[in-house]
Amino acid sequence: MKGKKRHDFFYIYGRKFFYQSLAEKFNFKFDNIDTPNAPYIVISNHLTNWDPILIGLSFGKPMYFVASDHILRKGLVSKLLKFTVSPIARVKTANETQTVISIFRRLKDNCNVCIFTEGTTSFDGETGEVQPSIGKLIKRAAVHLITYKFTGSYFTFPRWARFFRKGEMRGSLIQIYSPEKIASMTEDEIYKTVVKDIYTDAYSEQEKNPIAYKGEKRAEYLETTLYCCPECRQFGTLKSRDDILYCSCGFKACYNEYCYFEIPGSDEQPPFKTIKDWIKWERNVLENIAAKNTDNNSPVTEDDDQFLYEIVRSKNNILIAKGKLAMYRDRMSITAKSGDVTNFPLKDIIDMSVITMNTIVFATERKVYEIHCKQQRSALKYIDMHRIFK
Q: What span, in angstroms and rounded, lies between the C-alpha atoms of 31 and 177?
């Protein structure tokens, strides 16, 4: 493969450079894995944006990472990534044929590949959806499969957080499957094995072994995930400051060092103890709205100052509209100050997801788009609404 010696050099020496500093920064304990000969596929759960670097501490042999396409559209940073580690681009929500082709090319060139098969980091600390197609990919690859799992990292640096907090993190080898073992399994058996091996629930682990995660401003930017106030049930009214999440209606909740909610200055129990329970509840609120509301002319939620971009794979973003973003029962729209409206019927949106903290990415039959904003607002509420209304 062209550039492989260069990529190997940056992987090996980058690993040595980051080894001690990252282990200390995150209090990260990890398995040093005696890997089989190349090529092999590593499958892991995905809890933080640091996972691709941290997992490298467990694997001395170089490997290529399947990464979100958006990191390859960041100018100089993207050029540096391509030059040093050459990630395999994956466009979220879009057809992944080109990604699969790239994976098989690397394997054919005797390169190792790492896949975070959820495709996105967790909002609530629980392992997300794994596409059944992973079973087909591994079966066709006919190489060693290594499963790996992170624990503790969700509370260390959740995707919604402004700052990281120090507690405990661990990266563990779960299992190594030989090509012969993979050959004896069906695609569905491989898929179920992957799901079982990489599954984790941060709050279940915390219940069994409570650990303090200390850091500043622990609740800041939680409103990018928690979008419905349990007191007034309004969308988009929650704000955060320091360790407190609050609403204009007077509701307040403190996010403590053990990652649970409490009512500040009171022995009263909060409506929800965990982020996971809160997310489950707000999704139920949306489902109730969907069941009762048949009005296609009133937005369920809306946010000002949004920027709509059309995406050119691994190249750039093209701004096509800016204004107020609104989600209706049957469509999503952006209305400019001039009054021009750009509509996307929900039936035409194939899928929606979130990248980074609050960027919405969605695909139609032929194009991929992103919606950016400069202020903090929840992208998750739009993804939840799309799933429920569609």
A: 17
